[in-house]
Give the backbone structure.
Amino acid sequence: MHILDELQKRDLIQQTTDDEGLRKHLEENVVTLYCGFDPTADSLHIGHLLPILMLKRFQKAGHRPIALIGGGTGMIGDPSGRSTERSLNSAEVVKGYSDSIAQQLAKIIEFDKGENSAVARNNHEWLSSITLIEFLRDIGKHFSVNYMLAKDSVESRLENGISFTEFSYMIMQSIDFEKLYKEENCTLQIGGSDQWGNITAGKEYIRRRNSQENGEEAEVFGLTVPLITKSDGTKFGKTAGGAVWLDPEKTTPYEFYQFWINTDDRDVIRFMKYFTFLDLGEIEELEKELETAPEKRIPHKRLAEEMTKLIHGEEALQQAQKITEALFSGELNSLNADEIEQGFKDVPSVTIEDKELSLVDLLVNAKISSSKRQAREDIKNGAIYINGERNQELTYQMSEADRIEDRFTIIRRGKKKYFLIRYQ
């Protein structure tokens, strides 16, 4: 199947600059394409996944992706999709962010795959060396202010104001496209739908600077992916705890797995098409499973498995599944301390210095029960569980056996209220 047909069946194409021309170009060439990622944080999040996976899809189809780290553009800030000016970071911070993002991209896109091995570039390499006179005289003359003002990314900001700094971002991204066109024979830029104005500006800049003397225009293309929305109206990639990051230190593999497994029924098949590399026929079968047995949540589990394995690996997936099963069954003794750290990251926790407290004192000190009298009632009524095991012994003394790797004890009060006891 042609790569564009595959993308269309997955609803992954928002716009192209020339559908027929791009189709022919992809059929006749090993095409070099790029997508840029500005380092605005020390990790990418799942909002970046669609363009990253688009690079991977093109690579699997035999083409050559470039992951462009925006070490230069990241110091300016893209106005696209924003109503306010970005805060500017120092050069040192942007470099640190850039290094972290490059490492994350290397885990997803293959940089050792022969002819179509991925390439990593950083636009700080060329943007930092352009002089002001060169920028204005040799580059700026190719951009009409009227043309730039008409772009959505700029026009939407005019009412509230846009600085010359962010106004110039379009030119910087155009420089990137032209640089990669010349040095890497890069003829396709991809990005989110909010990048359409920047992409078409780059295409026009290449046309102006690189048209042949015989009248032939430089042949380059642009393609955007759709903006992802959730059926319930909430923003994709956000949870109550904030963004869902690709860095396991910021969003644990268990949390990452849970994000996907909790996908709304109305979104799960669409997200499988967007984010997984499962065959479309298999996705159709999973859609039937959803219709006939929605309570089993088979597509949700498969989506969570595929995404966790893709981003964090098989071992992290198995660990996330183990934590999920332990929490569902209540058999918490099967978890080690690191798994408890992941699974109980967001539950109330308290640090205890005295490891030899009675259970009654522990419940009061950790504010699990409001008083010693209430603690005794909770224990007597069978409402207290230690590491998943019910304990109804009023005189019970906490011991080493109740501490998992001498770091944690998990107390459950009632059916769902968990508390994490940490030991110094």
